[in-house]
Amino acid sequence: MGHRFSRRRQSDLDTLPQGRFSFSEEAPPRYYLGQGDQDTVRNVQPSSSSSEVSIGMETPGQQPDRRVTRQEGRRPSIYSTMDAVPNLEFYANATATGRLRRSRPSLETLRKVFEVPLCFRQCLYSILFYFTIFFLIMIHLVRCMLNIWGVILFLRLSWITSQAGIILTWVIIFMSVLVTSVTCLSVSAISTNGKVSSGGAYFMISRTLGPEMGGPIGVVFSFANALGCALNTVGFAETVRDLLIEYNSVMVDSINDVRIIGTITVTSLLLISLAGMEWESKTQILFFLVLMVTFANYFVGTVIPATPEEQAMGFFNYRADIFVENLFPDWRGAEGNFFQMFAIFFPSAIGILAGANISGDLRDPETAIPKGTLMAIFGTTMSYLLISVTAGACVLRDASGNLNDSLPLNYSGPCDDVACKLGWNFTKCEQSQTCPFGMSNSFQVLSLVSAFGPLITAGVFAASLSSALAFLVSAPKVFQCLCKDNIYPYIGFFGKGYGKNNEPLRAYILCYLIALAFILIAQLNVIAPLISNFFLCSYALINFSCFHASITNSPGWRPSFKYYSKWTALFGSVISVVLMFLLTWWAALITFGIIIFLFGYVTYKKPEVNWGSSVQAGTYNMALSYSVSLAGVEDHVKNFRPQCLVLTGPPNLRPALVDFVGSFTKNVSLMICGDILMVSRPSGISQRNTDKLVKWLNCRKVRSFYTPFKGDNLREGARHLMQVTCNLIFTLENKGASKVS
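RESULT FIELD:
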C-alpha cells in the first residue's frame, strides 16, 4: 500500500482530511478522529478541501474527547473502503525503555497453529493403523503357530532325531518347510488377488481352477482337517495315559485308555467350538502363552547340571561326544527309514492354512494371511531346529535308568561307547534292546531335559489341544462353503448356519464323528502318514492353481503379493505329488481315486456356476491360438470338413432339418443354426431364449452354434449371415423341401 500511495499525485494528497497528530516519548503516536463529520470523509471530492477533520493529540494520561465508534474507526481513504484502522502497535519496532516489544504473529506462526494438531492427528492415525495391521497379523500368526506346533513336536521330534540323526532330521525339517513355504507363497498370491471368503483352501482352488477341481479338493481337505483333529487328540490322550501309568492308575489297558481319554477330549473340544469363535480365540491365546513358558522352561533345563537320576536316564547336558554320536542315523524297527520318518514328522508342518481356513472371519485377510503365515513358518522352523539339535547334544539314544549302572573311577572293563566315557555302562540293555529310557525308547525326553517337567506336560496339552481345536473349527468352515455352492447333492443339509456368525453346527457334528472314528485307532504313527497324504494332495492342487492362473495370463489374475513365481508353484505341485507316492503309495492311490471320481461327477453334472476360473481363460487362449494358426494353413482335400449354415430359425421348430445336417457333420464339423429376427417384430427378440435353444441342441446331442441376427427383412438378414465362411447352405423352402445351394 505504501508504494501505491507514494505514487499518487499531489492534488490527490491535498484532498485528504487535514489534521494534527501527537507524538509522545512514552508511547507510539496514535491517531483519532475529532468532531468532523464522518460523511465528509466518505464523500470527499478530488477538488474539494472544505472538509476539515480535527485530529487531537493524545498523551498517555489524556483521554480523547469521546469514545471512538466503529464507524469512526474506519481508515480514511480516497477509495472509501470499509477496512478498519490498523493498530500501530503491531507495526512499531521501537519501544520505550522498560516496555516489552509487541510483535504481530507471522503467517508461518499462524499456520503452525493448525498444522501441529493436524500432524498430531496424522501421527495418531498412522500409529493406530499400523497397530491394527500388527494386531491382525499377530492373530493370524498365533493361530498358524499353534496349529503348526502340534503333538509331534513334544512326543516324536526327539524320537525322529534318534532314528535319523541330527543331520537327516534337519533335512526332513527343511524338506517339510520347502513344501509349506512354496505353498504359502501360492496361498499368499491367491489370497491377495481378490476377496477371500470363508472356505480357505477350497475357496482358493475352486475360484481359481473351477468347480471341477475345487469340489474334490474341498471334500478331501475337509476330511484331512478332521483327521488332524484326531491326530492331536490321540497325542493328548497318549500323554495322559503315560501319566496314569506313572501313577499306577491305568483304567483298562494302554490302547483302550487312549480311546476313552480321546473320546472325552474331542467331545469337550466340540462344546468349546459350538460356543463360538470368541471362546475359541480366547482359548488359543491362553494356549500360546503356555507354550511360550514351556519353551523357555526347556531351554533353561538344558544348561542346568544334570542330577544322577537324570544321568541314569541318559541326560548329560551339552556334550560334544553325545552330539557327534547323534549326528548320524541309527534306524531301528519296521519304521526305521527316511521316508517313514518324514511321513510322521510332516503333520507338524501342516498348520499353515489355519488362518486361510477361517478367512471369512478375518477383517483383512489380504494382509494378514501372507505376513502372518510366513512369520509363523519362520518361527516354528527355528523352534524345530533348535529343539532337535539341543536334544541330540544332551541325551543318549539308550539308557537304563538304573543308578547301579554307574562306573567306578578305576573301572577298566570292556566298555567303549559314549556312556562309558561319561561314567555309565548301559551296554547290557543296549544289546538286549530293553532300555526304557533315551531318545530311541522314550517319548518324554523333553520332560526329562526341562527345568520343571510338569511344564512340558502342560505344553503338550496346550499344543495338542490348540491344534485339535483349530482343525475342528477349520473342517466345518471349509465343508460349509462346499455345501453352499451346491456342487454335490445331499450335502446341503450340513451347510446351514446358526447365530450371528453363521456357525455350521451340523457340519461340526459331522466332523466330530469322523474324528471320533479315527481316534478309536489309538495309534499316532498310523494316523500321521494318512494325514500327510491328504495334506500333500491339497498343497499340490493349491500350487497348481497358482501356476495355472499365472500361465494363462488371465486379466483377473493380478495379485498384490509379488514374491512368487509360477515355476516355484509348479515345483511345489510336482514335489508334493512325488512325496505322496514315496511316503505311502497305497494311500496316494486311494486319494487320487477319490479325486478322480469326484472330478468325473462334477464334469458330468456341469453345475451352473461361473467363477471366472483360470480353466476358462486357458480355454480361450487355446481357441484363439488354434484359430490364428489355422488362418495361415491352406485347405487340403484330406482335411476337408463341411461348414454348414442352416437357416432354421428357432432350431426346436425345425428338428428334422437340424437332424439332417447333423447326420453328416457328425459333431466334428462346423454347424451354425441361423435365426433372422425381423425389425418389424421387435417382440420376437424378447420371446427367443437363447439359453433354452442351446440347451435343446445339447439335449438332442447336436453340436452346433445358435446365431440370431437382426435384419430389416429376410433377404438382408440372410445376406449378412452368408458372410460366414460356409461350404453348404441349407434352406427350407415354403413347401418344406430341402435344397442344397
